[in-house]
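Lecture 7 notes: from sequence to structure.
We start with the chain below.
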Amino acid sequence: MKHFIYDLLVEYGLSERTAIFINMFALLFGLLLVTYLIDYIIKRVLWRISEAIAKRTKTNFDDILLSNRLPRNVAHIIPLFILIEFVPKVFTDFPESEKYIEKALFIIGVFLVLRIVKSLLNSIKDYLKTLPRYSDKPIDSYIQVFVIFAWILGAFVIFAILTGLSFFKFLGSLGAISAVIILVFKDTILGFVASIQVSLNDMVRIGDWITFEKFGADGNVIEINLATVKVQNWDMTITTIPTYALISESFKNWRGMTNSGGRRIKRSVIIKASTIKFLMESDLERYKKIQLVSGYVERQSNDIKKHNTEKNIDKSVLINGRNLTNFGIFRKYLQLYIENHSAINKDMTFMVRQLEPTPQGIPMEIYAFSSDQRWVNYEYIIGDIFDHVLASVKYFDLEVYELGLAQP
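Predicted structure tokens for the same chain:
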């Protein structure tokens, strides 16, 4: 190869040095052209074979390999070997350049291997995400760890090539700078440890609704990777949270609510204390017309009459003995209303309770769980319940507290 066109150039009167340079460039151009053609042919053939295999197989893993361009990356291996084999012969007359060119080709080989590894790992990641059992797992985190390790290993190999040291001797010399390496990759190490703990403890899954007030996150987890967790908020914005914050900070995961079959309703109305009263017989007769509590009012009034008669209670003063109140009957009405509401989960806790009096009045709270957990439907259910509650207050001679209205 040395005398490819060298002798011809010398015969035409060119100097030996000029002839050597032209001969080298001609050889290099020819080698690169042949290598390119071989690379093109291998790439096309390998791609068509891979496509044919992918169409015939039932699994989609080979389709994912194609989408991540693994066959194309593998196709570059043979042309690279050809260059490694023949480039030194091209630069025989330039030993110094030959040494640097060989190192450059080996470094290109390292990058090619890293591309192949990355394509393969991405294919594995995409394939695992199609499997139901792995769809909510932080696969991205683990794949990123392998990619990082591969790049670190590749960087070590490149440095070993550049310095001329053997790979294992180069690794041995890294002990002195291990502290620097740990400092540089601190976030990566923290993220890796956090990803493992999040996965093992099942703290967060893709698709979970989480609330993280410190980072302003309130929405569904759409991605978990080595360094960050991405949350799509309800206003469609994206919040990025450091993965290690999930184990070092406090956040709320709503998965328990989702899995429970109900979404909590916990809301109250404040009743003006001045409208709460003992009930007279005329009031009871009027309340008996309210169907949900008619039976309750009938039973309770009979029991109270019997008790007061037996105890010879002086009922000329209403406070004496046992009495019913409009507030108590209203509470019972709401309890029966919730029990009969079709959107309330009857297998979970539901109650109506009186809370501690406030300067504004007496809160009456409904505590229950809706059977529909979807946000829009959940808000509709709450609205439907409290529309009825607010409209029914006046039928029990009660009033809802409103700021700014004069108190009687």
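Points to note: The chain has a mean pLDDT of 82. The two ends are 112 Å apart (CA to CA).
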